[in-house]
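Ligand: thymidine-5'-triphosphate. Inputs:
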Amino acid sequence: MTQAVAIRRVLHLDMDAFFAAVELLRRPDLKGKPLIIGGRGDPTRRGVVATATYEARKFGVRSGMPFRTAKRLCPDAVYLPTDFAEYTRWSQVFKHAMREVSPLFEDRGIDEAYLDISDLAASSEQIGQALKLRIERDTGMTCSIGIAPNKLIAKIASDLDKPDGLTILGAHDIPLRIWPLEARKIPGIGPKADERLRALGISTIGELAAAPLEHLAAHFGAAMATFMRAAAQGRHDTPIVTQREPKSRSRETTFQEDVSDWQQIARTLAALSARVAEDLRARSYVGRTVGIKLRFADFHTVTRDRTLADPTNDARVIRKAVFECLGRIVLDRRVRLLGVRVTELSEPGAHTLNGDLLR
Ligand code: TTP
Ligand code: MG
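Predicted complex:
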């Protein structure tokens, strides 16, 4: 089978220890120390690690780990609270630098994005090096870049030489560089799928690439089997999506001790509403649906939401909707966690235009 296929070059960029790197810009005195960012930055209270510097990772500290565990692994780490507005600000700076390389830019979250660089004249090495330099100059932070024939391999590649890496892979590099990696390195293969693959004797990407499709399909269904096997073989042609709206903004908090006091629940929800409103305003978004999440002490979790007539980023409007949602939940047990989420986001400019047209 011979088919002329234009060779694509996709660049994936992911900032190194992003929240921690931003904090170090303001606290250069902490450079070189194990630093943990998360929650309110108080290790004596309940909280979860958002990220840790590579110095702290040496002790085994990881994102998503409870402070309790992090403290046991690395008792001397310095803790700082998260400051989402500041991370968002720096996120916009590095993304601006990326957009200047090419408008074929796909935003994938606070610290990562893709570029399609297929049509640029410069070599991948030149583009990668220049972008790293530019971002370091504009932000003072390092990032890791992967360049490969598709998004999936580019994302895996950006992680291969972290921090401050630049990994360029062609299709011919896939057997040597990608196949020895664990199957769960493929975005889309989570811990559960990984476990099921292992039960079938498949632990590396190479083993997955070589597995008979029917065998995989019998265990995972045809769609997942086809995706996984093609991805492992380096076949994946999802294009760069240039207009990606964030789907939602949310904030949640886990109480130090489970609470039953309605006043405290209401105060917490009001504070979370204010923070979500602030996030929305920082990104110039408005949202139409407001929801709450409430987890009881026994981990039973309930959600309620309400759709507004007009999209908003006004803290008072969000808070009112949040309280309406709260009124629809029977508070018969102690509460462990509360969350506020605003979804169906749009840019207010676009909304005003629609409004004008309708009038
Ligand atoms: P990542 O890119 O996964 O992590 P990182 O940038 O801190 O470290 P590196 O890329 O060098 O491995 O996530 C980006 C940011 O998202 C991270 O700085 C903090 C936040 N985050 C969380 O809040 N919770 C999480 O569980 C994860 C994985 C990330
Ligand atoms: Mg990162």
